[in-house]
Amino acid sequence: YYNADETIYTHMKAWHPCGDFVTSPIENNKVTFSNDGTVDVMMADVVKGNKTLGVSGPLQFKHKTSQIKFKVKKGTGLTDGTKIQKIVIKDAQLPTGFDISQDYKTPDAITYAEAADLQIPNLNSNQVIGDEAPVGDPVMIRPTGTNDFLIDVTTSEATYKDCKVTLTDGAKMDEGYSYTITLTFGQAGLELTAIVDEWKSATGGAELQ
Fold this sequence. Notes:
209 residues; mainly beta; four-stranded antiparallel β-sheet; elongated
């Protein structure tokens, strides 16, 4: 609501998710929320208005994380019927809250959990690796500003440890970008390729032999 005095402006800030104010009320401008890796964390710049002029502009939300999506593909020599069973991103940090006293453009506006291995959720362990196809849910993690990260991959035939995903075309893990990582499995190992998509976007991948 606007103040009855038109010389007094109301300032509004927005974020998503809103947090659970019942179990975790705002303290010291900190908002907290639970996150399994699938939460799309967003913030908007402050807008202001008064009873005469209304609001200065729309709330324009910005993605504050890096999104990672995986695809799998059968390469030369892979045993027919091989199934993808698990993909784990090593040392990922999940956003768990906001400091709403901070400008939405600053890294300190988001609070993160400690680095830990993140298993891709809702991956169908009965999915046979064949033509290129998506697996699991997209996850959103802390932007690192680097051009690579490590994953562990398990299939019904083999386990691949500490596979390096390298982003293509000079892309880096930045906020607001989505990265599609294609894992190609073959007789010689795992090949990874990465592409940047819009959200903003990027790609990557790995070939598993």
